[in-house]
Amino acid sequence: MQTEDNSPSHKRTTKRDLVMRISEETGLIQQDVHEVIQKTLDYITESLTRGENVEFRNFGVFEVTERKSRIGRNPNKPDQVVTIPTRKVVKFKPGKVMKHQVTGDLVSLPVKK
Hints:
The chain is α+β, with helices and mostly antiparallel strands and about 110 residues long. It has a single domain (about 15-105), classed as Irregular (HU Protein, Chain A). It is built from three helices and five strands. The chain starts with 14 loop residues before the first helix and ends in a 10-residue tail after the last helix.
């Protein structure tokens, strides 16, 4: 018997969820909202592929960094050494506003004048 786990760590928002919510709130057709979201994601991916950072003020920054090659071990054969090659990875650094909203840390939020 399977039970559904509704703990916060297992919840997720999908692209479809975003499309439906934005469509409901704006009155736009779901197909149009989907196209805009998909184009946005495509352009973010293109920029990262070219080595550019993608910055959304108060939201965060996507950037490509390079992980250095390193020595690893095969967990099934711990005596076997494996070289893990250099590779590129995408990192996300949240902006101040997002960081504070997610952590609930309102103490250090910038004061708007």
